[in-house]
Amino acid sequence: MTPDVLNPQGHLPGLIVVDHAGTAIPDALGPLGLAPHWRSTHHFCDLGVADLAHALAQRLDVPVVLCPVSRLVIDVNRWLEDPRSILSDVDGEAIPGNLDLPAAMRSARAEQVFWPYHARVGHIWGQQMARHARPFFFALHSCTRVFGGVRRPWDGGTIWHESPAMSDTILHSLRQDSSLTLGDNQPYSGHAGIYTIDRHCFGTGLPACGFEVTNDQLETPADIALWADRLARALHMVMQQGPAP
User: How far is residue 153's CA from residue 15's CA, in Å, rounded to a whole number?
Assistant: First the structure.
């Protein structure tokens, strides 16, 4: 399935990627066999993040690549060998369409979703690296407030692996709003690796970072507009730093 691309000819030095933007299940790869209510949960996609990405694209003229396929079909932000690449259950409930999946079907999901997404990301990122001395790579996500029965205090948080530089800049900008509780490599740490960011950025020395907005912060159009404003300001600050010496 072809990824969605906003601002394909964006002029500013950066790229935003949204690994878990959609809930689509291509006919050739489904059905999953889950009850319909699962489609409106954070298990199917990052709730609110597609709308946030569209709002951010209106404020920031950089390309934005979104994966429209549900992560329950295949998670494009996991190594293919990772057991979480194609989950067999959600919250203890089996996903019938993912159980005992033949190797040929696993391969079909990778060929139709995983590889086209990363090819598109890689192509646009290559263009941005050719055009600009110091483009940024920003992976946008949302997460749930309560996970595993534990309430998370963070309204948003960075995730990074190789360098904290871009995370530091984003957090510095966002901390101008004292109402926010922010995490640095929280609620998820990138120290063990982050597939999409590492695949396209590791070793380049370019600013790269992910960001999780807690999805109860994205429930209304006003919420989404507020976070789009905040993140646009933060990413402008990243761009203003200029090339590394």
Answer: 29
